[in-house]
Amino acid sequence: MGLLEGKNILIMGVRNKWSIAWGIAQAVKAQGGNPIFTYLGEREKEALIKLTADMGEVAAYACDVTRDEDIDKLFSEIKERFGVLHGLVHAIAFAKSEDLQDTFVNTSRDGFTLAMDVSVYSLLAVSRRAQELMTKGGSILTLTYGGSVRVSPGYNIMGVAKAALEASVRYMAYELGPKNIRVNAISAGPIKTMSAKGVKNFSDILEVVEQKAPLKRNITLEDLGGTAVYLLSELSSGVTSEIVYVDSGYHNMGV
């Protein structure tokens, strides 16, 4: 049996085959889990259908996390079909491209609000509904980046959003712990995704990590998927409120 055999895991944020969420979904499926997907718009739906073609029949639901009515509908449908939820993977973040290309101090008010809404508040919004379906306990997992604690030029508003996200993980872990619901985050090293392309000089960051990290390489989707399985499974039953770094050890380097 796999580590996630029979577990219903909601995965939010799959956009394409380069998405971290997709790497996690593949790992969940390989360990016997039942991935449940969300998508935003017809373009993501079509991409998701192609990606999951080899998985057999999968459940997929439309959800715009900026709309409470969408979130309510999503969890109502999951409850009706599956009854119980064992895990939630929140891999959703967004910032306006102009706020990533300009300087941080020039971040627009509406850009700041939008980034915090989609990248941070959405975790609270979906977790509030998910806890009601985690009647047997569960694991909530989100994604962050080292730009939350160190300046990563070009990451700008997303660095601030990720800092808020990490603080949210700690507060949520405290409040949901009595329900046997664990909340953790993976702080991923730089990896080539569509979102990463919006960060200025991203290729330079990849080169630095390869040169300076103890493992002398950048991370892969398989690295992230394996850690996600650990955090979603009973192997990590005593782990909560943690920011787990998967970055080839780069975060511990002083140069």
Describe the protein in words.
The chain is α/β, with parallel strands linked by helices. The protein has a single domain, classed as NAD(P)-binding Rossmann-like Domain (Rossmann fold, 3-Layer(aba) Sandwich), CATH 3.40.50. Strands 3-2-1-4-5-6-7 form a seven-stranded parallel β-sheet, sandwiched between helices.
Short description:
The chain has one domain: NAD(P)-binding Rossmann-like Domain (Rossmann fold), CATH 3.40.50.720. The protein is 43% helix and 15% strand.
What is the CATH first-level class name?
A: Alpha Beta
Q: How many separate domains? A: 1
What is the architecture at the second tier of CATH?
A: 3-Layer(aba) Sandwich
How are strands sequenced across the largest beta sheet? Answer: 3-2-1-4-5-6-7
